[in-house]
Design a protein that fits this description.
six-stranded mixed β-sheet; 4 helices; 22 strands; 40% strand; binds the ligand Nc1nc2c(c(=O)[nH]1)N[C@H]1C(S)=C(S)[C@@H](COP(=O)(O)O)O[C@H]1N2; binds molybdenum atom
């Protein structure tokens, strides 16, 4: 998701500024960043608004159904040593990350900026990334440099990163204090959106009808499969329901490539003739699980309610 415009950027002239509550503020070129130790990490990024269009009434913003999620291998340098070299000031409580994109939202003109509490910014898996799946970042994904914060919803992973500032007060910019809050009305101060809630999706089996999107498949054995993830803890299990969430059976889990990337799952299903509603439900190692209904909130964030895929099982007749 891109709030404003993709800024024009050139790696040769790009500069990253590190400043604020640090002993040694500095400016880095991309060449200097690339000379630092590099790591590659598989990470699932999910937009906090994924599932928004399933809420009723639908909050007005990007109308995602279930598609605003993906997994990639990100390459970059860990943030922590860079902050330590700059000398973290005793008064620093948060780290603000600024992008090069500017626009108006909520009636306020601002650069896209988000912050992290210092302890979260110092997690070893937080990266300043310049490559994805072995290639330079494409313009729309933050070329030439972006933050990648595994486990947090996507808004945290600031693209077109050009400024890192340590601050002595919690950051109150629009994208932090005016947005990305879970609340059911404008007068409720709300709770900040942070970590990715557990979720799973299934690859809809069979074939779709063009207009209704209803799906058809023949009776017999089908291997249902999908992905599951959580930003709170590794995935502990996935269950499947073929009756709309009334009864559940465990699915087979694959190997999770990292605690920060989704895991594949599968479930052999003996499909009988009739209409069935397929669902999957992920539970993480901290005991968090997906609800059948997620609470409504004004921004339409963090809707991790179980996906429902109705299918009609019947012998497929030609013509
Ligand atoms: N600078 C900047 N960074 C940004 C955004 C933005 O608008 N500007 N959008 C955020 C949001 S809301 C999401 S979901 C992710 C999307 O990352 P992707 O486009 O690489 O999937 O980028 C985040 N980083
Ligand atoms: Mo997002």
């Amino acid at each position: 998701l891109i709030h404003f415009d993709i800024p024009a950027a050139d790696e040769a002239t790009w500069r990253l500024e590190v400043g604020g509550e640090v002993a040694r503020p500095r400016t880095l070129t991309m060449a200097e960043l690339r000379r630092r130790p590099a790591v590659t990490l598989p990470v699932t990024l999910e937009c906090a608004g994924n599932g928004r269009a399933r809420l009723d009434p639908r909050p007005v913003s990007q109308p995602w159904l279930e598609e605003a999620v993906g997994t990639a291998e990100w390459t970059g340098t860990p943030l922590r040593p860079l902050l330590e070299e700059a000398g973290i000031g005793p008064g620093a409580v948060e780290v603000v990350f600024g992008g090069a994109d500017r626009g108006v939202q909520g009636g306020l003109e601002h650069d896209y900026e988000r912050s992290l509490p210092l302890a979260e910014a110092l997690r070893e898996e937080v990266l300043l990334a310049w490559a994805v799946n072995g290639r330079p970042l494409p313009p729309q994904h933050g070329y030439p440099l972006r933050l990648v914060v595994p486990g947090w919803y996507g808004m945290t992973s600031v693209k077109w990163l050009r400024r890192i500032e340590l601050v002595g007060q919690p950051f109150r910019g629009y994208q932090q204090a005016g947005s990305y809050l879970l609340h059911a009305s404008a007068d409720d101060p709300g709770v900040p959106v942070t970590r990715i809630q557990p979720r799973s999706l299934l690859a809809p089996p069979g074939i779709p009808e063009f207009e209704s999107r209803r799906r058809f498949l023949p009776p017999g054995r089908h291997l249902l499969s999908g992905r599951a993830w959580s930003g709170l803890a590794p995935v502990a299990g996935v269950e499947v329901s073929t009756d709309g969430g009334t009864s559940w059976q465990p699915a087979d889990l694959g190997e999770q490539p990292s605690p920060w990337a989704w895991v594949g799952w599968s479930f052999p299903w003996e499909a009988t003739e009739g209409v069935h509603e397929l669902c999957s439900r992920a539970t993480d190692a901290a005991g968090n699980t997906q609800p059948l209904e997620a609470p409504w909130n004004t921004g339409g964030y963090a809707n991790n309610a179980v996906q429902r895929v109705p299918v009609t099982v019947h012998p497929v007749a030609a013509g």
